[in-house]
Amino acid sequence: MTGLVRISAVRRIDINDIGLASICLLGDCVEIVPTAQALAVQRQYSIYNGNEGALSAFPIFRRPIPVPSCTNEVHMQVMNRNPYIAVDEVDILAFSSSAIMQVGSNERIRCVNRLKHIRQLVHRPGEARLT
Predict the structure, then answer these.
(1) Are 2 and 80 in contact (CB under 8 A)?
(2) Cα dihedral sign for 39, 54, 64, 30?
(3) pLDDT tens digits, 23-38
(4) What per-residue confidence (pLDDT) applies to 92?
(5) CA-to-CA distance for 43 and 105, rounded, in angstroms?
(6) Residue 75 domain flag
(7) d(CA 1, CA 63)
(8) If 0-12 CB within 10 Å is exposed, 13-18 middle and 19+ buried, where does residue 22 land?
């Protein structure tokens, strides 16, 4: 990392739940790349066929992720007069799915979360189908 090294000081942090490729980071990092891929199947009846769950069967997991291009040149000068990043208190109920909570500096972050939801309900003759 370039520039002045800073010290992250947190008096108290209370996080109830961190899940699915998420990160709680106190301090500096050059690059963070949390990645989560999940298939969420909700069924009216709990039946598992044994050959399910191949993420590659769904196009959403194969598509390339577009990376935005930066066409503007940015000139920036930062002067940190205090070597501390001081935080008194952090209270978080929950975060998940490639989320980041950081107290510190970072050069690059690339979070990826791909989640496919499927609902399988039994259709009874005579009932209207939802499409």
Answers:
(1) no
(2) positive
(3) 999 999 999 999 999 9
(4) 96
(5) 43
(6) no
(7) 32
(8) buried
| Residue 76 domain-assigned (yes or no) | no
Burial (0-12, 13-18, 19+ Cβ within 10 Å), 76:
exposed
In order of 2, 12, 28, 44, 83, the CA distances from 86 in angstroms are 20, 11, 13, 50, 9
Domain count, the chain: 1
The answer to whether 87 and 14 have CB atoms below 8 angstroms apart is no
Residue 128 inside a domain? The answer is no
Could you tell me if residue 20 is inside a domain?
yes
Count CB neighbours of 84 within 10 A. Answer: 10
Length of the chain, in residues: 131
Predicted TM-score of the model (pTM): 0.72
pLDDT value, residue 80: 80
Exposed (0-12), middle (13-18) or buried (19+): which is 8, by Cβ within 10 Å? middle
Containing domain of residue 113, as a range? 7-61+82-120
Longest dimension (CA), the chain: 72
13 beta partners = 90
